[in-house]
Give the backbone structure.
Amino acid sequence: MLPQLDISVYFSQLFWLSVCVSTLIIAFKKCFIPRINRLISERNAFISQKEDNIQKLEIELRKIEDDIEALKNHGLARSSEIIR
């Protein structure tokens, strides 16, 4: 008779299959999934912090660009006065 068709070992195989699967499910629920959730939340916090920094830098950049444009316009006006 073929060993894979031997009904006498079905119970032990099903028992160990259920033990292994339940152990994996418990391990995922208790260990792996909380770690993954923690890493995702830390990553999201890091990303939001960097986005806030980017927004602050963009505001500062616009202010500097406005200052440069004002100085340029002032310089052009002053040079026009000097030339006249």
Q: What stands out?
A: Residues 10-83 form the longest helix (74 residues).
